[in-house]
């Protein structure tokens, strides 16, 4: 973790220490991610439930739509909700541990 963090606990990205005062930017980014998640996840879940109803699920096209909607909801949880929460709580590889490094590399 020494190569990712400065001595005062700030994140180093591309060799540059991130400046102080990024609180506002972090809050805005967290808000955007959480708003997208709060709007999109219920829509995906509703779509998945609508496609899984008894008369529709017997047709293969609705099965594919249901699978796609479920995977889309999981994708939104993984790529909007979790990063929004981590950004709101100011969790970085410097203070969050190795799992945040692995989570970040997984997204890249």
Q: Secondary-structure element order, as H and E?
A: EEHHHHH
| Number of helical elements | 5
Could you describe the largest sheet, including whether it forms a barrel?
2 strands, antiparallel
> What proportion of the residues form beta strands (DSSP E)?
under 5%
Residue-averaged pLDDT, rounded?
A: 85
Percent range of helical residues: over 70%
How far do the termini sit from each other? 18 Å
The best one-word shape is: elongated
Strand order of the largest sheet: 1-2
Number of strands: 2
Low-confidence stretches: none
Helix vs. strand class: mainly alpha
Structural Rg? 19 Å
Question: Could you explain how this protein is built, in words?
Answer:
The chain crosses the membrane at residues 28-52, 64-86. This is G_PROTEIN_RECEP_F1_2 domain-containing protein. The structure is a single chain. The protein has 108 residues and is mainly alpha-helical. 70% of the residues lie in helices and 4% in strands. The protein contains 5 helices and 2 strands. It has helices at 23-51, 54-57, 60-88, 93-96, 98-107; strands at residues 12-13, 16-17. It has a two-stranded antiparallel sheet. Helix 1 runs antiparallel to helix 3 (60-88). The longest helix has 29 residues, at 23-51.
Question: What characteristics describe this protein?
Answer:
mainly alpha, 108 residues
What can be said about this structure in brief?
The chain is mainly alpha-helical.
Explain the layout of strands and helices:
Layout: E1 12-13, E2 16-17, H1 23-51, H2 54-57, H3 60-88, H4 93-96, H5 98-107
Antiparallel strand pairs: 1-2
Helix pairs in contact: 1-3
Transmembrane segments: 28-52, 64-86
InterPro entries: 7TM_GPCR_serpentine_rcpt_Srt (IPR019425)
Keywords: Membrane, Transmembrane, Transmembrane helix
């Amino acid at each position: 973790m020494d190569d990712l963090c400065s001595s005062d606990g700030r994140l180093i990205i591309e060799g540059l220490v991130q400046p102080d005062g990024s609180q506002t930017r972090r809050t805005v980014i967290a808000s955007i991610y959480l708003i997208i998640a709060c709007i999109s996840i219920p829509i995906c879940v509703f779509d998945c439930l609508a496609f899984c109803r008894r008369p529709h699920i017997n047709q293969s096209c609705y099965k594919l739509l249901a699978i796609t909607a479920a995977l889309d909801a999981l994708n939104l949880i993984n790529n909007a909700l979790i990063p929004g929460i981590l950004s709101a709580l100011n969790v970085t590889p410097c203070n969050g541990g190795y799992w945040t490094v692995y989570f970040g590399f997984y997204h890249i």
